[in-house]
Structures are given as C-alpha cells and as structure tokens.
Amino acid sequence: MLSMYHVITSPPPVEDMKGVGPKLRDKLLELDIRNANDIVFHLPSGYENLSVMDLTEARHNDKVTVAGDIKTEPALAFFRGGKSRLTVFMEVNGMYVKVVFFNQPYLKDKLKVGGSARISGKFNLHKLEINAQRLIFDASGGFHVKYHLGGVMHSKTFSKIVAEVFEKCIFNYDLPEDLKQKYRLLSIREALWHLHFPKNPHDINEARRTIKFYELFIFQLQLMEKRRQERVRNERYIVDYDVEALREFIDTLPFELTSDQKRSANEICRDLKQNISMHRLLQGDVGSGKTIVAGLASYAIRTIGEQTALMVPTEVLANQHYQSFMEIFDGRLNIAKLTGTTSRKEKMYIQEALREGEIDLIIGTHALIEDDVVFRRLSLIITDEQHRFGVNQRKRLNDKSYRKNVLYMTATPIPRTLSITTFGDMDISIIKEMPKGRKPVKTYWRRFDETDEVLDALAAEMEKGHSAYIVAPLIEESETLDLKNVQEIFQLFTDRFGEENVELVHGRMKPEEKSAGMKRFESHEKPVLVSTTVIEVGINVPNATFMVIFNAERFGLSTLHQLRGRVGRSDKQSYCVLVSDPKTENAKLRMDIMTSTTDGFELSEQDLEMRGPGDYFGVRQSGLPQFKVADLAEDYRVLEHARMSAIDYAAKMEADG
Ligand code: ADP
Ligand code: MG
After folding, report:
1. CATH number at residue 586
2. Which residue range(s) make up the domain with 401?
3. How many domains in the chain?
4. Spans of the chain below 50 pLDDT
5. Whose CA is nearest to atom 17 of ligand 1?
6. How far is the CA of 2 from the centre of ligand 2 (A)?
C-alpha cells in the first residue's frame, strides 16, 4: 500500500540527528516521531508573522510588525513593584506613532534617536499607538514557526532537527512532473521546506496548496488500490447470462428505458460478464426507476438459473420492493419475501424453496442473513440504502454468495464530489433523468398569512378525488409563538374540511394508532393526512398530489426534498407548498432553491455549498483519513482534481507496465 507520509526511502531514525539522545528519542516517540519522514511531516501548528507590514493598512487592534525611524529620545518611567514603561516616538510609513514597551527597561539603550527599529505589537489606531511586545534584532525577518511538541522541546530546537534532515536526506518521492506543471505546484521537498522555514505568506500558501494536493492525490491512489483489491479476479465471478433473453425481456416492458437506465444497466451487465466481483453503487432519486434496473440484473442471473437476494433495512421497504418486482416480472421470475413477520410455516416453505433453487429472487430484511437461510446458488446481492446495515450484516449475506457480485442502491442523492470520498472504493452508476411523462412537482412558497389560499388550492385537488399530505414540524407546544404545532394545524384543516376527511398521525402516538391512521389515509377513507415527519419513512400513495409543509424553514434541503418525493408518483400533476416566514437569508435561499428545482442531485450540490459536507459523512463513517493539511470538508474541489489526476496517473502506470 502506498504510504502518504513517506518521501525519504530508508529514513534515518531520530537519534541520528544531532543532540537527540535516548531520552529525547523516547519523548519524540510519544509524539509519533520516529524517523526523518515523521520529522519533515511534523508540520508547524502556527506562524507568527514578523515580516514588516505597511501600518497604513492596519486596522484597530491588529497585531503588527513595522519598521521606522526613531524620532525622540526614549523616556523610561518606573512604577511601584519594579514595573516600567518605555516610550519612544517613531515615524512609520509616514505616520508619527507612539511606541510603548512595558517592563523592558533594558531596551532603552538600543533605541537611539536617528536610528531605525523593527518592532511588533498591538496597534491602537485611535491613539496612533503601538503597545510593543518586542524589538526585533535579527535581520532575516520572516516568520516565527511554532510546533506542537507537547513540551518536549522548544520549537527552535525542533527547527534545527528539521533543517538537519533537509541537509542529510535525499527526498526520493515527489509528485509527477506533469501534475506539478499543470497545477503549478512545488516539489514536495520545496513545499515542506517553505512550511518549516517560511519567508512570506505567499510561500506558505503555495506550500500548503501543494501538500494538500499531494495528500488528496495519494489518498485517491490508495482508494483505487483498495478497489483493485476488492475486485478480486476469479473466473467464477463471470455471469455468462443469456443476452438475447434479457433483450427480449426488456422489449416486453411497458415503457422504454431512459438513457440513464440503459447506461446503468449496461454498466451492471458489463460487471457481471467480467471475471471481477461487482462492487457497484446505483444512485438515483426516488422514482427515477432504479427498481427496474436492479430487476434486469436479477433477470440476467435468472437466465443462468441462479439466485438474487435483495436486502432492505425495513419491513415497509421490503413490502414496497416486493410489490414493484411482482408488477415488473408478472410471473416471469419466482419472487418471495422474507421478513421478521413472516410466519414460521411460510418461512420453512421459503427456506426449502431457496435451497432447492425454486426462488429466483428473495426480497427481505435482516432475516436473510440468518444461518438457516441457505441458497442453492446465490450470485447477486442487492442492498437498498446499504449505509443502514452494519458491515457484519453485509458480510454475513455476502458469505452466502457464490459469485461475489454486489449492487448497492441508494435514493439519497449525494453530490459527486462527496461520493468520491464516501464511496470511493465502489463503481458508481447514476440515474439522473426521470422517466418520461413524469411531471415535476410544482413547488410554491407561501407566507403564513396566505394559508387560506393554500386551503383553497387543496379544496380543488380534493374535488378531483386526490389526497394530500400536510407536514407540521413539531408535536410539542410551539417554542416560539409563530411556530404552528401539529394540533393547531390539524384544527385548521378539520375546521375547513371536516373531521371525517382529515387524519392525524404523529410521533407520540402508539404504533397501532399510527398504522391504523396511515391505513385510513392509504385507502382514501380520509384524503388528508396531517403529520409530523414520520411519513418520511417509505409510504407510497400515488393518489396523493398535494403536499403542504408548514415551517418549511425548519428543514434542510435534503429533508425537504425527501418529503416532496412523497407526491408526484403518478402521471397526475402534483403540488408542494412550503409555508414559511423565514427569518434568515439562508432559510430564504432554501425556499428559493426548492421552488426552482426538483433535481435531487442539483439540490444536494446546493446543499453542499450552503452547509458544507459535514453532514454527509454520517452516511458512511468508514475510516476517513486524517490529513496534515487537506480538509475533506473544505477541499472537495481540490479532491476532484486530485481524483482525475490519480485516475490518469494509474492508467499511465498500467500502460507503462
Ligand atoms: P425508484 O426505485 O428509483 O424509486 P421505481 O423503480 O420504483 O423508482 O420507479 C418508479 C415508477 O416509474 C415505477 O412505477 C416504474 O414502473 C416507473 N418507471 C420506471 N422506469 C420507467 C421508464 N423508463 N418509463 C416510464 N416509467 C418508468
Ligand atoms: Mg462479475
């Protein structure tokens, strides 16, 4: 495996450096500093800029370093307790400035009228006065470098050791020449030198830019290496499916696949045909048609008489998938469902059928990983929302697989830049385009005092026999006066449409009550559902064409988008109304973004811009590395370049043998 912080081959140990004996060596060991590589990559924790600046550009209370001519004889005053004040007037950048040193009486002799001096301290713009901390003697100027050394030694001492490494050692590794040119980067040696021995802020910035790129470049190469290892080559992993049969099946579909669906299906089929285990993520918004793509893969497996397992995190999702697959295949595939609520008798029957190979596709929850679930020949595993499964759970299912092909599905649009880090070791297929005929949900933003208008619009939808979701963010009494709580909103709708038409479901209800309420809504017994965000978790009522989200500013873009995904599930035009009196610019921006696009990927990119990527990393907390300079939360643009470069580089390496 490529190592990131290894640029000197056979690095000498720390004790080879002057002045480092066994005692110091042990202390450095505690800081994980063992050898020359560790030394040069132990970067400064901060800099104190002691290079001279232009005082006319300084603001009040800035820490400044300036040079000027001494205009008056220094005046020294002593106070009680041995305290002292030394005052001198200097001309600095054309200004007449009072400079005061506290408790450094010995400086009096160094300050001579007509001479010049360099000082650093805090600038009081109003009084044109500098509270000087130090008089700088050394002519070199530049920066004071600070290191975190846990009190083991002084930063200056460590600097000497670093300098010795630069003197003694040859830096064997560097970024490829063409990359350095393309991105105007320094060599690694140069960059590290500038960071340890900086001359000016520009050098530090350029050096940081170089090391950042270097870290992300190596990180990408490491990920690619990991991918290679993951995709084990084995003739056994080839699924030599019947291409003709698959084509014929596609021809029988009631619709034409979108080009994104075709491309994704092709990518998956290519994986199947190869002697490499598939490790692919299929990403697509709710309703983009992932199910049919996954279905095609399982059909391909069926053509060689083998089996597919689809594992989902919840019973609700299992039911939904089961329904959709039954519709798609209409008897051409033997499909079964296995969950925690499957009866014992049925379970026995399913287990038997799986062992005998009579079931082509099994859809289920964690129940699938149990030991008594045995396959005749499992060759494809599909998991939905895989981040909700533990590594062990996935592994246990994978252990039952004969041909190690895994397809992950997710309906959470993740910005491309982030998928690179979070799913960097997977291949990714993306479905962006929605099926033809799908009408984007028309989204509006209304103020609270326009609620009547919203109720009128809902009345019109109900006339057409459609149903509606009303989302209220809280069940508790409102925190602030204008925050409508769910009870209040329920009241609003029952007043207008009558109790017989409005259902209430919220997080505080008993599960039986909740599901009874949901059922009345799903069966259209009650066409209006007022609820907290509980409906976020998989519910499918294609007849629902209207959604109102109260206090929409309380939700992030991705939640709003997930909520909106509950409507627009048929060929009928759907509507989403955000009711909100936003208080902040950010909240306003979110309302504007929501009304301007229904594209989940575009939203997620915008979300990334607004919030930064912190939240997305929860999606997959696999050991993201700690970098010295790079920060995944900020440097995702650099990451993109580093990734492209790494791909090119690896391809070139392969071509060169
Ligand atoms: P997802 O799983 O991505 O949320 P689905 O696969 O459930 O989406 O598809 C949503 C609906 O769109 C389904 O009713 C499906 O039959 C239909 N559908 C899928 N692909 C197409 C297509 N290319 N043209 C028209 N309808 C499609
Ligand atoms: Mg394969």
Report:
1. 3.40.50.300
2. 235-431
3. 4
4. 475, 477-483, 536, 617-623
5. 289
6. 27
Cα–Cα dist 71/87, whole Å: 11
Is residue 649, in this structure, part of any structural domain at all? no
Q: What is the pLDDT of residue 615?
A: 53
Atom of ligand 1 nearest to the CA of 289: 6
| Same domain flag for 104 and 213 | no
Strand blocks (E) in 400-487 = 406-410, 427-431, 442-446, 467-471
Nearest to 528 by CA among 571, 489, 565, 483: 489
Query: Which residues contact ligand 1 via a Cβ below 6 A?
Result: 255, 257-258, 261, 284, 286-292, 324, 411, 435-436
Q: For position 545, what pLDDT does the model report?
A: 96
> The whole model's pTM is what?
0.67
* Domain end among 112, 135, 158: 135
**Which residue type sits at 559?**
T
CA distance linking residue 480 with residue 149, whole number of Å = 49
289: Cα within 13 Å, side-chain hemisphere: 25
The single-letter code of the amino acid at 366 is H
Beta carbons of 309 and 407 less than 8 angstroms apart: no
Residues 261, 320 share a domain: yes
Q: How far is the CA of 248 from the centre of ligand 2 (A)?
A: 22
Query: How many angstroms is it from 566 CA to the middle of ligand 1?
Result: 14
Which residue owns the Cα nearest ligand 1 atom 9? 289
